[in-house]
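Researcher: Here's the sequence for the chain we discussed earlier.
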Amino acid sequence: MGEENRHLRRVYAEMSMQKGLLKVALGKKR
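Model: Thanks. This is the structure I predict for it:
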């Protein structure tokens, strides 16, 4: 169970990081 939680947390962190990068990329385009 703990292992699964760690995996989900890592996936969530990567997703939020990608969203942040997308925001930065969109901001630079404008």
